[in-house]
Design a protein that fits this description.
Helices cover 47% and strands 21% of the residues. The chain has six helices and three strands. A three-stranded antiparallel beta sheet has the order 1-2-3, covered by helices on one side. Helix 3 crosses helix 4 (101-109). The termini are far apart.
Amino acid sequence: MPRTYPKRCGKCGQKAMILAAAPYATTIEHDGRAYEVKIANLTAPRCGNCQAISIDDDADRQISAAFRRAAGLLAPEEIRHGREKLGLTQKQFANLLGVGEATISRWETGAQIQQRALDRFLRVSFASPAAVALLQSDFQATAPGV
């Protein structure tokens, strides 16, 4: 039996929210491009009265994952795995790429979706030890106090 939610529907105001799966489609703009995102069965709270859906955290994760697939971007776990395979901490990896440590954390948790150019940069870093060595030598040469 579907779970009911105590909150009211944001559209019709009825207390009729239930967890349901249904097809979902949207367009997401990212990096100046529009991506059609389709999910065969998005699981999200849906109003039993007016059928409006409410995007909760779990539904947002489903949509973000589908978007990354549609845009061809690395998933959070792929970024974390690639960093770990390089043997770097988040701070070391952030220094290597020239981004903030919090940015790496947000990419790895899925809280932020990386831009296409940075996604390509990540892929080169994960695939090429020579690229990582070049970035490391550049960082050491330009880092203050090194």
